[in-house]
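To close the section, here is one more complete example, presented without commentary so you can practise reading it yourself. The ligand is NAP.
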Amino acid sequence: MKKVIIIGASSGIGKELAKIFASNDYEVGIAARRTDLLKELATEMPTKTYTATIDVSNPEIAIHALEKLTRDMGDVEIIIICAGTGYLNPSLNWSQEKDTIDTNVSGFTVMAGVAMRYFMQKKSGHLVGISSIAGIRGSNVCPSYNASKAYVSNYLEGLRKKAAKEKLPIMVTDILPGLVNTAMAKGDGLIWVASPQKAAIQIYRAIQRKKRTAYITKRWAIVAWLYKIMLGFIYDKI
Ligand SMILES: NC(=O)c1ccc[n+]([C@@H]2O[C@H](COP(=O)([O-])OP(=O)(O)OC[C@H]3O[C@@H](n4cnc5c(N)ncnc54)[C@H](OP(=O)(O)O)[C@@H]3O)[C@@H](O)[C@H]2O)c1
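Output:
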């Protein structure tokens, strides 16, 4: 039986991904802080489901919890780091900036490290991270969120290069969503907001195709391209 772990599966994109993997005959390990939601999701799943309470912002405990989950499941093929947080924080409140960094930067790094060491030991595997279109440029209203997602994309690229240089048979995929209708989609006048189900289907396909990067939904590739080529003085004004 194929096996996948999804960290950040209690709601939103991660939850929908868990359902899609299960409906495609994967045993699924689901992790997050809200154990009650994980347990509820586990009852709906058609395949064997493992739950683990993991707070990625508490690194020492999170490391052991993810290692234990991989041991309990055995021979996990794919690990997806979906856990993330962010705030509209124009006043630059430190506790919100810190929570974003603790979760999206430190928490992501600690989970990616466990996953890579696991895959290096078993000489195969596929690491997937969820960054964001937001990581392409800075933000005036949520600067730490955008910066944290730039970190995620850059870190994943580093791990992909490490795998290539060391001839490790490990795939690394960076998923860049635009806007998805979850608690994370904050702000007014949002456009091109995909349902979490649609986003998860496209993410599942990108993982199956072993893509290096994937824009979710696909039309966000246009925005990504525009962001990349836009001159700084124009970007400052929009
Ligand atoms: N929605 C969008 O428009 C959008 C766009 C671009 C990128 N993304 C990214 O997509 C990912 C999923 O977000 P979503 O949109 O599905 O929002 P969501 O419904 O709020 O899901 C966030 C998930 O992350 C988990 N999480 C948050 N902090 C955690 C922590 N400290 N430890 C462990 N798990 C934690 C949450 O579980 P618990 O609260 O139970 O721990 C939840 O399962 C995030 O990385 C987000 O940045 C979303």
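Once you have examined the tokens, check your reading against these statements. The longest strand covers residues 170-177. The pocket of NAP is lined by residues 8-14, 32-34, 54-57, 82-86, 103, 107, 130, 132, 177, 179-180, 182-185 (CB under 6 Å).
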